[in-house]
Amino acid sequence: ARALARALVSAALLGGAAVVQAQDLAQIGNQWLQGALAQGDSTQTMPLRMEVQIGKLDPRLNLAPCQKVEPYLPNGSKLWGRTRIGMRCVQGAKPWNVFLPVTVKAFGPAWVLVNNVGAGETLTQEHAMQKEVDWAESPHAIIALPDDWVGQSAARNLTAGMALRQTMI
């Protein structure tokens, strides 16, 4: 990221127009994502270890040269699980807008079933053990506290290895 920034500043100082290449988009997107996730950490009640995986754009895309790319979060999107961020050219001869696929993982403690549980069966402390899982693997919220699931009944058949989520009880 620093090398890219230096190249852009150098080109500007020399009077040339630095061009952002398609391969730079992943780096720009990753830098933006890290900043956005760092800002969101202050609102987390549970300590989660975040990981970001940047996907690739379709190699057949032929984007026009661009001097300035602006990353953004599309309306209705969240930085959680499989999602995307927008990348738009805001300074170039021909503006463009593409979506970069990303996966945001959020690892934290959760209760994971040690055995299968039948629909309607009452859950006890012995049904689950605490493990680290990816909270963002599913859109349904993790049940973090045993008080929220012990004594509740399973809403459907549950399989050993599943992390307990709100839709399961």
List descriptors.
single chain, 169 residues, alpha+beta, 5-stranded antiparallel sheet, 18% helix, elongated, disordered N terminus
Description:
Helices cover 18% and strands 27% of the residues. The chain has 169 residues and is of the alpha+beta class. Strands 1, 2, 3, 4 and 5 form a five-stranded antiparallel β-sheet that branches. A hairpin with an 8-residue loop joins strand 2 and strand 3. Mean pLDDT is 83; it is low at 1-17.
Helix percentage: 10-25%
Shape: elongated
- List the secondary-structure elements in sequence, H or E: HHEEEEE
Which residue ranges are poorly predicted, with pLDDT under 50 across at least 5 consecutive positions? 1-17
Mean pLDDT: 83
Between the first and last Cα atoms, what is the distance in angstroms?
Answer: 45 Å
The count of helical stretches stands at 2
Secondary-structure-based class equals alpha+beta
How many extended strands? 5
Biggest sheet overview: 5 strands, antiparallel
Cα Rg: 22 Å
Please identify the oligomeric state: single chain
Strand content: 25-35%
